[in-house]
Amino acid sequence: ARDLWDELRIELNLGQYLDMRAAAAGQVDRATAQRVATFKSALYTIVRPLQVGASLAGPVDAEFLEQLEAYGVPAGQAFQLRDDLLGILGDPSTVGKPVGHDLREGKPTELLAVALEAADATQAAVLARVGEPDLAQHEVEAIVGVLHDVGAISEINRRIDDLTTTAVEAAQGLPWTDAAVSALVDLARYVADRQH
């Protein structure tokens, strides 16, 4: 359990470093966004806590830890993608932060990477404002409009569905009780469909 906890700490720091470095460099690409989501969300939020808990309950082998990872990585990535969508489309009273904050911060998300890949010159000019802390509300709305128009929001929703399906299938292969497997399936669906 201690070794897994140490891995969690290292991975979280690595994810934070990659996130800050990409934001400072204006680096927006899918591979980097996915790495950040894996380190900061998937491993930190789901995989390592499951593995630590399992190891505290009794001896676990490497194969079982890998099975938990096969569930936790896609569930955690879906969690992060939903968080990215809520950050621009959610209700501020339930999301817990101002909508558009991630756009003003210039957070290098997979959503933004998908949009930049699909944008034409005019749309790319609108997206180029991401990262400006003084974005007016109408500019945030224009950026969100581009995200819709280029199909980025639809693609991220499809990716969330695919990741959730992968997580559910992995959970159903775990050698746990039906109640425990059901709880993991419910968790994967919750993080993918949540509204806050």
> Strand share of the residues?
under 5%
Order of helices and strands: HHHHHHHHHH
Mean pLDDT over the full residue set:
92
Radius of gyration: 18 Å
Shape: elongated
Number of strands: 0
Largest sheet: none
What is the CA–CA distance across the termini? Answer: 31 Å
Which consecutive residue ranges, at least 5 long each, have pLDDT under 50? none
Q: What is the share of helical residues?
A: over 70%
Structural class: mainly alpha
How many helices? The count is: 10
Structure in words:
By secondary structure, this protein is mainly α. The protein is built from ten helices and no strands. The chain has helices spanning 2-25, 30-57, 62-89, 92-95, 101-105, 110-118, 121-127, 137-149, 152-172, 178-193. It is elongated and about 55 Å long.
Quick tags:
single chain; 196 residues; 10 helices; 79% helix; elongated
What is the topological layout?
Layout: H1 2-25, H2 30-57, H3 62-89, H4 92-95, H5 101-105, H6 110-118, H7 121-127, H8 137-149, H9 152-172, H10 178-193
Helix pairs in contact: 1-2, 2-3, 2-6, 3-9, 3-10, 6-9, 9-10
Summarize the structure.
This protein is mainly α. It has helices spanning 2-25, 30-57, 62-89, 92-95, 101-105, 110-118, 121-127, 137-149, 152-172, 178-193.
